[in-house]
Specification:
This protein has 13 helices and 19 strands. The protein is of the alpha+beta class. Strands 1, 2, 3, 4, 11, 12, 13, 16, 17 and 18 form a 10-stranded antiparallel beta sheet that branches. A 3-stranded antiparallel beta sheet has the order 5-8-6. Strands 7-19 form a two-stranded parallel sheet.
Length: 416
């Protein structure tokens, strides 16, 4: 068993310099922003310690403070260092694209908020007003706001029989979700919708906006923000830039296997493997397959932090941003994730004294993606962050090291 565990970890060299890439041209000296250089470097040291766990073949990090880049770095490789790989090391650049997994939800939700800004819908409209067939089994009561806040009563859908190919059949997926019976007929219980709500929200964008989601994402967000990637899946010609996702560390055992399957609908390793499949990378999964660089993601959250504008371009109106991040209900036990969480219409919210984004982060908003991808903004700290990675692990050491990164960030960037 011990030998199997060793094979599921990255071979970490004693000295990491050859695996670290820093975008010196992008980084602003910490002193210019009133930050202590040693505390900023402590953030990166914590990232290196995360890499030393052997659980993350590739990590990219971008941190903005007051809109200025404080850290833009990468550690690891695109290819060659994953468990069991023996090929040459392909260096990882800070601008490498990676899959955001569930952090895609926050980005996709902004497309709904854009339609609301344009007066084409209201968050308090019923979903069935735009998708009449969704009304089955009492779901006519569900509003768009409740859908985006994981209160639509359809957190999971059985996909294992069809495999990842089901993701190619948009119309079938939507029809299955419309026909599904809600687990909570009163729609009062919060239960994380890992993939399901994204397809219904995406269908609303298609029907109300008269536009396909890839075009909406490009025209409404990626193009005005000047993003390099930010696409559903990734173009075949860019595939060699995308590090594959890999299972690392110990194999999950019961009851963790049951818990994971209740969230993603398939066994852990199968879900990770499917994320590298052409069926996943060549289609639209609104809640789970946006690919982007850490800088792309940080720019989106900086735009939100700025009240909808970036580099002189007004992408969303301030009122739209306010609606997007305002809480929907209070702190509630999530029936899927089995933890207390607050949601807005598309975002996971921070908490005090500690939350998803570290210590004292109640004003923060963002999203988690498949165990360890994190993207968020914290108005209190004038902070926007994207921490992307490719190792998928349930090892406690990975969680502890990730928490150490968040603590270091909170210490380096105190409230303003």
């Amino acid at each position: 068993m011990a030998g199997w565990l060793r094979r599921q970890r990255v071979q970490v060299p004693k000295h990491l310099q050859a695996l670290v890439t820093v975008d010196h041209a992008a980084e602003v000296p910490p002193e210019r922003l009133g930050l202590q250089p040693e505390r900023v470097e402590a953030v990166w040291a914590a990232v290196e310690q995360l890499y030393r766990t052997g659980l993350q073949p590739a990590i990219t990090l971008v941190v903005r403070r007051h809109g200025q880049v404080v850290l833009k770095r990468a550690i690891g490789a695109v290819r060659g260092n994953a468990p069991g790989e023996t090929g040459p090391i392909v260096p990882l650049h800070p601008d490498a694209p990676m899959c955001l997994f569930s952090a895609s939800k926050a980005i996709s939700a902004l497309l709904i908020h854009k339609l609301a800004e344009d007066g084409k819908l209201s968050l308090d409209d019923r979903v069935a007003a735009y998708i009449p067939e969704f009304a089955a089994h009492g779901k006519h009561r569900v509003t768009i706001r409740e859908l985006l806040a994981h209160r639509a009563g359809i957190p999971t859908i059985a996909v294992e029989a069809q495999g990842p190919e089901l993701l190619r059949n948009w119309d079938l997926l939507v029809a299955m979700l419309c026909a599904a019976k809600p687990f909570d007929p009163r729609f009062e219980k919060q239960a994380y919708h890992a993939l399901t709500a994204g397809f219904i929200a995406g269908e609303i964008v298609r029907r109300v906006g008269g536009i396909e989601l890839p075009d909406a994402l490009h025209q409404w967000l990626a193009k005005p923000l000047g993003l390099q990637y930010m696409t559903y899946g990734i173009k075949p010609e860019w595939r060699d830039r995308l590090p594959p996702n890999v299972v690392t560390g110990p194999q999950p055992v019961w009851p963790l296997t049951t818990y994971i399957r209740s969230i993603i609908g398939v066994p852990f390793a199968e879900g990770v493997g499917a994320s590298n499949d052409d069926a996943f990378l060549s289609t639209v999964v609104p809640a789970g397959n946006i690919c982007a660089s850490a800088d792309d993601v940080s720019r989106v959250f900086q735009m939100l932090l700025n009240g909808g504008s970036l580099d002189g371009v007004q992408v969303l109106q301030p009122e739209t941003v306010r609606r997007a991040i305002e809480p929907v209900g209070g702190l509630q036990f999530d029936r899927t994730l089995k933890v207390p969480l607050r949601y807005s219409s598309g975002f996971m919210l921070g908490e005090k004294p500690v939350g998803l984004y570290g210590p004292d982060c109640r004003e923060a908003f963002g999203h988690l993606g498949f165990v360890s991808v994190l993207a968020w903004a914290d108005p209190r700290r004038a902070l926007s962050v994207a921490l992307l990675n490719t190792g998928k692990s349930v090892a406690p050491g990975g969680v502890l090291r990730l928490a150490a990164v968040l603590r270091a960030l909170a210490r380096a960037c105190p409230p303003v």
